[in-house]
Specification:
Rossmann fold, 624 residues, alpha+beta, Immunoglobulin-like, 3 domains, globular, five-stranded parallel β-sheet, Jelly Rolls
Length: 624
């Protein structure tokens, strides 16, 4: 393959060449909720079980495309354009689609959110704060599951139904009915404050059974019953062990690394037992790494990168032992994220290892840093190649957008960039004022409790009960846009956030370059924020925008219980970067594959022909 480049075509060419030379591995697309989703190790201790799944498949033969989304129900994932539409568009013949929903379908106590909204309108009541995501187990939930199945099959894909993992709702030596996603003991009745109940033999409100029932309507749709499998897993360990080791703190829904790894392995074993991709599954005594590649991505000169790797080994020859993790020069390793050296150790018991290691690389010299991670207990060993790329930003012009948010939403713009005006979805500005007389700011700000912030409240003013995660339609958005013929390397995003009116405010902060947020990256998750405490959030995203493209920043808040008078306070939202001239780009590609080229706006080149030459013109790839 031949190519030439001018100006800043290096990174783009590498991306395109990588896509063009990718092997034809089987793709497994996963759709579902936060219990499946990917999480950044620097933002939370949550880990989705699908985030840990790739390590149990041969990565050269099977690629996991995890599209689990926090807060998604079967309805919201289907209807909101950033999710199902972007998944099904990339499903090819022979691909698999794993379908797991229920956690957020249970909103509104088993009622469909649209029915609740319609009832409120009919009775002249406000619809503010009503969650549309809920579905009925025996009705609309099944409708959306069927839609995923039918549309997957229409593309030549292979749907697999996965019942949802249990919640950690122990009751003695069993898991409660609602922990198994059956609301039959207590469900909402439309128009009534009373709760209904049905016998355990009645599956009307059982979402897991609804999934089994829908799969049974088809002769070629298998079921992996994670509900029953995780119930047995939790019971085998007991409540106290699960609380301490498998689940996030004060959370009975979301697993952390050990829980997610065990669930992913259970799932892979079940796939193998059913003969689904069995020849590609690794569940023996091999050492596995998650993620399965040691690519740290890009960093700016002077930046230190830290990446977490989950290392697992099951059925080891010795019941107890010690693993040693060693990295080559240029990298350092730690098991506690505090003490770094060329090697570190971790003990194991029960013949199984599940351990996290943290690898650090300080990027000082522009170019590529390569190395190796080796894991061994003296009997078995495995190596993982490590690579990181250092980018030099010298020579650019500084740009920034700052929203002080002390009296209005107006931004301060510096350099050749444009602000995306602050906007709200399902929220509004209550007022600009100090948090209260007890507010505590980070010491380095030098601010006292009188400092003003933007206080935001959800529409309807009352935070609903039962929310355990973000609501996709409730957020506050900011952003920066690159002018025509300008490229901006974003090197900092920061803001201050606080909850006023008491403890319990929660939020997630993301950035994305797609307007529909389909490529969102989690910056930070704050759970159970202390009242009146101001939290500083900062990240170095290493992302570029060019020629009219934008970077968007969103804050998604929710509250732990039903409450009024609670606001989320924002201050000093800041996006910074270095701008350079983007005119005259002449990246030339001699195409050698049938697909896989994307322009600067993320749009695929349709049906490129082998042997033709394609040119980057502005922000679009065209045939020369």
């Amino acid at each position: 393959m031949k190519f030439s480049y001018k100006r800043w075509g290096f990174g783009l060419v590498a991306l395109l060449l990588s896509a063009l030379t990718a092997t034809a591995a089987v793709k497994v697309h996963t759709i579902g909720d936060s219990t499946m989703a990917n999480y950044d190790e620097n933002s939370t201790d949550k880990r989705g079980w699908c985030q840990m799944l790739q390590q149990f498949f041969n990565a050269d033969e099977v690629v996991i495309n995890n599209r689990g989304k926090s807060g998604a129900s079967s309805k919201s994932f289907y209807l909101e354009s950033a999710y199902w539409k972007t998944v099904i568009a990339n499903v090819n013949e022979g691909d698999y689609v794993l379908i797991q929903f229920a956690h957020n379908d249970e909103k509104n106590g088993g009622l469909d959110g649209d029915d609740v909204i319609a009832h409120a309108k009919e009775n002249g009541q406000s619809t503010d704060g009503i969650d549309y995501r809920g579905t009925t187990a025996s009705g609309t939930f099944k409708k959306y599951i069927r839609a995923y199945i039918e549309e997957t099959k229409a593309k030549g894909g292979k749907p697999v139904i996965v019942t949802p993992i249990c919640r950690k709702y122990f009751s003695g030596n069993t898991i409660r009915r609602n922990g198994m996603h059956d609301l039959g003991d207590s469900f909402s009745i439309l128009g009534s404050s009373s709760k209904g109940s049905v016998p355990e033999s009645d599956n009307t409100y059982d979402y897991a059974q609804a999934l089994r029932d829908v799969a049974a309507e088809y002769e070629d749709v298998p079921v992996i019953d994670l509900t029953l499998m995780t119930r047995d897993l939790y019971l085998s360990y007991g409540e106290s062990y699960c609380t301490a080791n498998l689940f996030c703190t004060d959370d009975s829904t979301h697993p952390k690394k050990m829980g997610a790894t065990l669930i992913a392995r259970l799932f892979a074993q079940a796939m193998k037992e059913q003969g689904i991709l069995a020849e590609h599954i690794i569940v023996g005594t091999d050492i596995t790494f998650s993620p399965t590649t040691g690519d740290f991505g890009k960093a700016y000169a002077g930046q230190t990168l830290v990446k977490e790797f989950n290392i697992s080994a099951f059925g080891l020859a010795s019941q107890t032992g010690t693993f040693t993790f060693t990295v080559s020069e240029g990298f350092e390793v730690s098991t506690d994220k505090k003490n770094y050296a060329q090697s570190a150790t971790a003990d194991y018991t029960g013949g199984n290892l599940i351990s996290s290691v943290y690898i650090r690389a300080t990027m000082n010299t522009p170019g590529t840093l390569s190395g190796t991670l080796t894991a061994t207990d003296g009997t078995v060993s495995r190596e993982l190649p490590l690579v990181a790329e250092c980018i030099d930003l010298s020579g650019g012009e500084e740009v920034s957008v700052l929203w002080p948010l002390t009296s209005n939403p107006d931004p301060v713009v510096t350099g050749p960039c444009m602000a995306v005006d602050e906007s709200w979805s399902g929220m509004y500005v209550q007022k600009y004022s100090s948090i209260n007389s007890k507010a505590v700011w980070p010491a380095e700000t030098g601010r006292d409790a009188s400092y003003k912030t933007q206080r935001n409240l959800l529409e309807g003013d009352t935070w609903p009960a039962g929310e355990i995660d973000e609501v996709s339609t409730r957020y506050i958005q900011f952003g920066m846009t690159a002018p025509a013929q300008t490229k901006i390397d974003i090197d900092k995003i920061s803001l201050f956030v606080a909850g006023a009116g008491g403890s319990g405010m929660r939020c997630k902060v993301y950035y994305a370059t797609a307007a529909d947020f389909s490529n969102a990256v989690l910056i930070q998750e704050l759970t159970s924020m202390a009242g009146n405490q101001v939290y500083a959030i900062e990240t170095i995203p290493v992302v570029s925008i060019a020629d009219g493209q934008s970077l968007y920043l969103r804050v998604y808040p929710w509250y732990k219980n039903e409450a009024t008078g609670k606001t989320i306070c924002l201050s000093d939202v800041y996006i910074h970067g270095m701008a350079s001239d983007a005119t005259g780009i002449q990246t030339v590609i001699s195409d050698n594959a049938d697909s896989g080229m994307y322009d600067l706006m993320g749009r695929p080149v349709k049906n490129p022909v082998k042997g033709n030459i394609y040119v980057m013109k502005g922000k679009k790839i065209v045939r020369k």
